[in-house]
């Protein structure tokens, strides 16, 4: 009896410690998701070459993932089991997709206001659901399907609003549409596909998440590096140098983006982050949300909340 009591009392501090860690991660992710669009616009100058910021972000991801694996004590074990064929099979395609997606996001950051970007970026949930069903046959509940429709309505509403001259008074509407909204939608499609492929690698290939992060970052960087030989970014790097347009402050959004890419966000974190984005945009840019954002925001918040709360459950067959 005494032994049982001591075991219970010993487990309490560890569970409390785990809860504290979860809340700290959640708080960081809320701030990261919420502030990322704003700090990217403020600290990444328009002259910065997109490929250099994406490759730097991938390098920081590799460093963070290796540190976390070393801390967990799994680095040496995984090093013995690792094979090039296994790495390319599990991480090769998602890495190339994520590299392209990150480049499109960098373009979109510069041409949309922070809140519009954050709201439209949630459309990746639609494509993640679609591709996980196609690849893994992972079904959605009726409530989740309804939540995805709410998200589609919000995205259409914002696209019409921000793509019109009324929705984007400070910028040319064509510039907002073709360099802001379109790249972001394509990035969302790619994000959904890459997420589904990562889930497949995790569930079918039993590939650890931190190892996948390292592999995808390295492969993605190599893909970007190869693309620079015949691209405008490659020419710009040759002409001006890798860190053209960078300032010490550019490292802040790059590091934030990298760390946020390793940690996994929960639904309530994303909802809180949207509100943080709206608040920060008002405080730092003096811009209140547009009418379209005010209409779309509650739809997205409701959609994400419902989607997380009502996952698909397999019905048990009665005997």
From TrEMBL:
GO terms for cellular component: Golgi membrane. GO terms for molecular function: pyrimidine nucleotide-sugar transmembrane transporter activity. The keyword Transmembrane helix applies. It comes from Escallonia herrerae. The chain crosses the membrane at residues 48-70, 82-100, 115-136, 145-164, 176-198, 210-229, 241-259, 266-283, 289-307. Belongs to the nucleotide-sugar transporter family. CMP-Sialate:CMP antiporter (TC 2.A.7.12) subfamily. Its main location: membrane. It is a multi-pass membrane protein. It holds the Pfam family Nuc_sug_transp. Keywords: Membrane, Transmembrane, Transmembrane helix. InterPro entries: EmrE-like, Nuc_sug_transpt. It is found in: Membrane. It comes from the Eukaryota. This is CMP-sialic acid transporter 5-like.
